[in-house]
Amino acid sequence: MNEMFKKAIEDGASDIHIKAGDFVRARLNGKLVPLTDQKISHAQVRELALKLIPHEKDRDRIDELKDYDCSWGLPGLGRFRVNILKQRGVLGIVMRIIAIEIPTFADLRLPPVLETISQNERGLILVTGVTGSGKSSTMAAMIGYINRNMHKHIITLEDPIEFLHRDLNSSITQRDVGWDTESFSTGLRAALRQDPDVIMIGEMRDRDTIDTALKAAETGHLVISTVHTKNAVQTLSRIIAVFRPEEQEIIRTRLADSVQAVISQRLLPTLKGDGRVVAAEIMLVTGTIRECIVDADRMEEIVDLVHDGKEQYGSQTFDQHLMDLVNTGMVSFDNAKLAANSPNDFDLKMNMLGQGRGTRTSSDVAENAGDKVSV
Known about the structure:
375 residues; alpha/beta; 7-stranded mixed β-sheet; 6-stranded antiparallel β-sheet; 15 helices
């Protein structure tokens, strides 16, 4: 099994799927492909699950487990975020591969403006996207940047702990939800009494966690967290909608005062087909955007404000970044169009510039295109 995991890491897989009666499969460049020549048995899956479960009390009740999250490390190679599940009454395992080294913004090909965003002393920074879009890697890069360049106390609340950070210029306290603390909301309330400068929340899942995160941002802390949304406007709307209608007006004001940036991500296959690259929408909150957050009727103006702020603030819409990725030969026009917020508008804009379908071929690919990214 260790050799299999090693091969998956070396091949650049993002996930490993293991279940009885099937081949072990790995997700490579977004596609699920067989990793073994032989199918795996129920006994082998159970034996591996026992090896992955970190706590004896949980191993003792393995046959009762239905959904179980943990993390596991392979010395010298990497770490895995593990989900052990039941399917058809027998155990299955899905493992997300996490690199040992903390990625940098350059490693992930993220815009340099993320350095500026990470330098905020207070407020709320949200990293959004669907499952598997690289949110954890981006947050790890932000924590790594702060750790290398500032003297802070950073508290992370994760379920489970993924990237392991070493104390550099900052001191980092990493807490595993369910083991080190009862829940995100409990750990977050406790964090406010632990002299934090930066609090990273693995996910804002409920009203209580969102409310406490806003309070932390309002009281002078930098809060970094994730939301499963597709873009900046949807992120703001989703957070507001969590609260009761009679609360939403004050939540709009609190959110407008607290949020500093929203980074939304999607992963696209490279033009060469040998990796994936991040397309990112970056919303840096300006005074005008704060006014739009407060006024529900002006929320749709935010997209145009993000678009117009590219030169001055370093913001960008998905479509702007996708156009850049097509123009530099990183991704194909067709894949960029599929990922665009409005495929028809994207098609129109690219063709107006003479850069639409058929204008990029493999011979046009820049020399540095196609490098794999951590996800």
